[in-house]
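Data availability (excerpt). The following record was deposited with the supplementary files.
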Amino acid sequence: MKIKIHSMAFDGKPIIDDGRVVQAPTCLEVAEQMHHQTPFTTDLSLREYQLRVLAKIEGDGAKPLPGDPEQAAAEFFTRMAQHGWVEFLPDEDTIESPYPEQFQEAVETVRDSGRTNMFDIPVAIDLIREMGYPDVAHWITGHLVEYVEFIIGEPKIFFPPNSNGSDTSCADK
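Predicted structure:
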């Protein structure tokens, strides 16, 4: 399964030409990847994360998710797609990563070292360079917005739309 998680404008509308692509063999694995893209949600269970996201999208009247984790993930994405938050992509589509090779590895290496707050960007860049990723450090200096968005996990998703959609299942995509 491959989805594009659309960035959101401040008015809660998706920015169709912008977003992050996530791919895994199943809906559940894609949901787990999304869950761990931001440090603000890793303390939640996957189910709590999904329900919190849906509550932001649909409000307090959000329907519950099925008990089975795979079915819950399928419904989670279906409902997100109904509101324009995600787009289902054909698996054969290839979308080039906006990040340079070894970017995630470099960021995780510095983060896991505990030597700096990743938002102290000059220090993080120096450490990335020092830890053997000079090309990544150079790229970050020219792509600060992309770096910060990666660190905080797509901040634009905190502004959900306020519309309702139809009940089409994930399997129908």
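Summary of structural features: The radius of gyration is 17 Å.
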